[in-house]
């Protein structure tokens, strides 16, 4: 990612959670080399002697974790105002700058890698990779595929369309193939489709199936033919969930209506569930939303909690995603508290946000784990999230963020001599 100047790093006096092991390592040390790859991560008693010229940070007894993932974001969408205001009343240049601010805020919250599932042009990904702007490492679907009146149809109840350029509407097999090709032409790393209706869309319901079975299969085939790219499916109700998995998607997004059959299919097909619980656990305020959305939220929130808790108990593969844009940007790690609330252990929730999410994104050979040879993407939490997972939810507890050894955020005091020469 951009320049690796200053990538050699040593962090000591920390508790280490490596993202795959069952136990934390007390009194640990992590070192990365000049290329930003980890050279050592383990007990201080076995650590190599510090190398001259390496930046050294005293972690002050905090907990060092792999850089965390958010596998379902909408960085191009504001979470503090309506989509109508963002689409119709925001200058495009201002919108770009607001997106870069959200990217930085997300990185500062401890998210070093993110997958954006609609509304983020590929240029933002490339700008982060080139070091032009700070932000998480990015994969992006660029847009969302749906049908007329489906979840991604930006037509308002009064009939006016928001004309969202990232929403692709198609109503037959040739149409969805062409729509997928347009997204791939725009630089998409994966294709995002809607196989169910949604809570936040006016014209449908989560129990509705969106794309037809043959349309789902056509998109999956297009993605496969283009260097084996994955497909992610917005799928909230049972019909859409089953259709998505049977059609060959890599991940079910939301999955609020998942049942035993859906869990079985996930395991058989090697697919992931990304439950976006941050949206489910948000306080409901009828004054801050439309009546139809409020009623759908009332019906679905408790149902979602029950079904996702059962999926956690079943042990399905889960990666973390927040639907940031719907949920607040910069509060991404609240998702781990939600997973724990529904029965996941704190260590399992951390694995879901690190090594398991890395598997979903196909980067498990370089990211998501603090072990020798991996990129030194890391986060330091002041305190012990295994005792209080809620510590991760507050960005002020995230006191160090690094990507490939390069420090992006540091709020700990650096004592004289900490940068050795």
How would you characterize this protein structure?
The chain is of the alpha/beta class and 421 residues long. The protein is built from twelve helices and 17 strands. It has helices at residues 83-88, 92-108, 122-129, 173-185, 213-225, 238-247, 260-269, 277-280, 291-314, 334-341, 346-352, 355-360, and strands spanning 9-16, 25-32, 38-43, 55-58, 63-66, 68-73, 111-116, 137-140, 144-146, 167-169, 191-194, 231-235, 251-254, 272-274, 378-381, 398-403, 406-410. Strands 1, 2, 3, 4, 5, 15, 16 and 17 form an eight-stranded mixed sheet that branches. β11 (191-194), α5 and β12 form a beta-alpha-beta unit. The longest helix is centred in the C-terminal third of the chain and has 24 residues, at 291-314. It is globular, with a radius of gyration of 21 Å. The two termini are 25 Å apart.
Strand content: 15-25%
**Category by helix and strand content:** alpha/beta
Radius of gyration: 21 Å
End-to-end Cα distance: 25 Å
Which sequence of SSEs, written as H and E, runs from N to C? Answer: EEEEEEHHEHEEEHEHEHEHEHHHHHEEE
Mean pLDDT: 93
The gross shape turns out to be globular
- Low-pLDDT parts are 416-421
